[in-house]
Every structure is written in structure tokens, then in C-alpha cells.
Amino acid sequence: MHKAAEGARAESSAAGPHPPEPHPRRTVAGAVRAGLALLRRKVSAGEPGSLPVICVLAVVWITFQSLNENFLSPRNLSNLSVDIVGTGMIAVGIVFVLLLGELDLSVGSISGLAAAAFAVLNVNNGVPEWLALVIGVLTGTVAGVVQGYSIARTRVPAFVVTLAGLLTWNGLMLAVLGDSGTVNLDEDGLVADLTNYYFTQDAVAYSLAAVATAAVFLAADRDRRRRRAVGMPHRPLRAVAVRTGGTAVIAFGTAYLLNRFQGLPLALLIFLVLVAGLDVLLRRTHYGRQVYAVGGSIEAARRASLDVTRVQTAVFAVSGTMAAIGGLFLASRITSVSQTSGSGVLLINAIAAAVIGGTSLFGGRGTTWSAVLGMLVIQSIASGMAITDTPPAVQFVITGGVLFAAVVIDALSRRSQEAHGRA
Question: Residues 107-135: pLDDT tens digits?
Fold first, then answer.
């Protein structure tokens, strides 16, 4: 018996030590499982993030692709990437306002006023295009500052102040345009190129995809190292790699599809750069933390000695500026400015995009990327309806249903956060 045991030990020694079982979080599969478990915990705690809107977008794309095989064609996706920019810019500004728990109803009128100011200065008065463009953008900034300061100092609800702004800025736009009512832009000019210029070299789109992938990895890895250094919970390196891999698939897949048509649109490039820059401003700077703090509780922010007036004024200045930029892109798309600029469903679509994308109506939760996702959903529905010859009435019904579902999810998430003591 003793000899048999010794023989077994000798055989085990000859075979070498048993390799340690891999830790489930040290493998790619383990990282994916851990990520899914974390996602489930966040959803149950009322923090679904971008999951609902991604699921809605997937359903929309699958449905319209099954109805018309041209929906996901390179041509349609390229047009879609340009169509989301104008209203998407305005929606990004709305995100800042919603983070405070407020609403800006004047962004449509501001976008029309900025475009009218540019057109009249450049076309009718011969002001250089670049200077007229700067003045147009600053017009939106000034309008936003006036509204934000008025709201902060008088404490009149933003709904009322911006409703008055909607009427005022629209009246100024009509006055600026004058009796003609319509100004046609130079089709070969700078503003027209904003939505009509494409980088036809394949390397441009692929280079942007590589830069985006590297930026996601570096940002996630830097956050991981900082958390680990102070003993806070952090993602393992393999989880960061999986997240980066997902980004790479999306980025390079998009680049491939765009290159199969006309290349990378200049409008999309500008849009993504602005969204990424404003995302860094919100999540990585002292100003951004102040915005979230004021949105979480304005009274608590005042008691913490935050300059609430400055924060609110700055937020509405950002909203006005982005509305002006969006108005110029919308004018570029049709190379004209008229008395209907900034009207119609523009305001509704901009607000809906921010809310559908996951920005909370209660303030304190949301990112600039929320506007991108929400705008993709809205414009995908519009594009799908167009290529399937569906009546516009159905588009409004579907978009309204998606918006209602987003608001319900937001309310339920808020209630769940309160139950978990996180609201």
C-alpha cells in the first residue's frame, strides 16, 4: 500500500506540476462573462446605459433590411451618416441642458437665426465666408448666454424663458432675411462643402478608425491603472481588450462601408470630433463634474459653493452654439436658408434624439454619445420609411412610440435607482 502511494507520487512528479486553473476573469471568455454579469447588475440597479437604444437600433435595421435589401447598402448608410449631423449637433447641445434637468425650446429658432445671419452677411453683403460663418456661430452663443444668464439670475423656469426665446429668435430670423425670404448659398463655397465633401482616399477612413480604436484603449487602460493604483474596483486588462476589439469591429466596419461608396464624409468627421471633444469636456474636466453635480441637485450644488449661475449660463451657451453649428449644417445640406429654417419637427427630433439615446429627463445622467445613438434611431426610421415608400404619418407614430418607450425606461430606471439608494 505504501509502495503504491509512493509510485503514484513518483508518476505525478514525472508528469510535472499541474498547471493552475485559469482565473475566469483572465481569459477572454471570462472577461465577457464578467462584463455580462456587470451589465445585469447595472440594469437591475436602474442603470441600463446604452443597451436599450442599441437593441432598438438593431431591431430597426434588421426590420428595414428585411423589407428592402438596399437599406444597409453603402450608399444609404453614407447618406444616413450625413443626414444625422445637422440635427445631431443640436441634440448634443440639448444633452447639456437635459443634464441640468432643464429643457431648451429655442434651439430650432437659434439654428435658423444663425444660418440666416451667415447667408445674409456672405451672400447679400459680401462678407468673407469664414468670417460670416464665425459670426453665425457666435450668434448662437450669444443667444444661449442671454437665456442661460436670465434663467440662472431670475430662476424663472427654463421652459418659459426658452419658449420666449423661440419666438424672439424666430422673429429676428424673419427680420434678417427680409422680404426675399430665401437666400441661396454658393454651391462651391465653404459651408456647402460641409455636407458635400468626401475624403475619397481609403486611408483616411481607416486611419480615423485606427485612431478611434487606440483612443478607446488608451482611455480605458488609463482609467484601469488609476483605479488599481488607489485600490478601487477596476476592469481587468482582457476586459479592456474585449471592449477595444468591439470598438475596432464597429470602426473598421464603418470605414469599409463608407469607402465602398464615396469615402469618409467631412460632415461625419467634424461631428464625431465635436462629440468626442465634448464628451471629454463632460466626463474628464472640473466643469463637466460641476454640470453633473448641478443636475443631480441644484440646492446641494449651491450649498457646496458651486457657482450655479456660471454653470447654467455656460450650459445654455453650449446649447446655443451647437444649435448654430447644426443650423449651418442643415443649410449646407440644401444650400439655402429660408423662412422655414429651424421650424417643423427639428426641435422635436433634437429633443427626442437626446432622450431616446439615454439622457435622463430628470438630470444628472447622459453623455454626448447619447445624442448620436438617438439620432441614428430617428434617422434610420426616416430613411427606412423613405426607401419602403411608407407614409410619413407612420414614421411619426413609430418615432413617437420609441420616444414614449425611452421616457418610460428613464422613469423606471429612476425609480429603481431610488430603491437602491443611488438617486
Answer: 999 999 999 999 999 998 999 999 999 99
